[in-house]
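ARCHIVE CARD
Drawer: 12
Card no.: 0347
Subject: one protein chain, sequence and derived structure
Cross-reference: see card 0346
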Amino acid sequence: MVKSFKNKRIGVLMGGISEEREISLRTGRAAISALSSLGYEAVAIDAGKDLPERLISERVDVAFIALHGRFGEDGCVQGLLEVMGIPYTGSGVRSSSLCMDKAAAKKVMSFNRVSTAPFVVVRQGEDSSDVKLPRLPVVVKPCRSGSAIGVSIVGKKKELAPAIKEAHRHGSEAVIEGYIKGRELTVAILDGQALPIVEIRPRRGFYDYRAKYTKGLTDFIVPAALKKTEAARVVRLSLAAYNALGCSGAARVDVMLSEAGKPYVLEVNTIPGLTELSLFPRAASAVGIDYPSLVERMLLSAFTNRG
């Protein structure tokens, strides 16, 4: 399989037109470097409105998707690649779309008895006072955005309206969910297998965009210092979320472990970051999978079945 892929031209789709463009470019450049070091013919493709033409002119045989956010992580590009008959990495159209829509993903998880925080959706123009909200404190976030963009933690009633307004700057729907006090964890899943749990400890505030992408602002513990029973519950729940949402290839499940020891899934990311500060490579490294090998395994998933 590896030999056959090395005869193919791999287009690394990166950049794009979402708010997460800069992070996507960092992920894409790192992936290209890794693939090239292993002898693959990889070419960078900035996924703009001319993406179909670029895929044809660059003679792309396989797409490595390094896009984050809307129009890349939400099933749009996956649908285009399906129509063009180009194999691609990661989850399929339906799963990508579901996971990008936080409200839809939470509904599917709840139906499948995957524990997640209680939530409501407030649409743009809707009066939040007419909606039955979870008890304060709450987390307010855009429904279809990533990298903690537009996310606020609200502890006082007067802070709620500005937080909803900020979330609506990034989309027409805001998700308001109950705040779970506890330990922030993430589980990287590669081809259906869970890698060691990573614990995330921001040095101040919460794990926002700045803490995610600025070196030295967050500590990461791999593997997380959990009791065996706690770790088993977290992994079991994460795999249940991955399967319920039809994910394939690489995905990352973000989890909060409450002070009472109960895990709750926050969200599932179908295109995990691959930058020097990203969580997925840290988890892979903990079991001896170096960065180029991880990228190669993600590439080889391009022919797996998808949801």
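Annotation on reverse: The longest strand covers residues 182-190. The mean pLDDT is 88.
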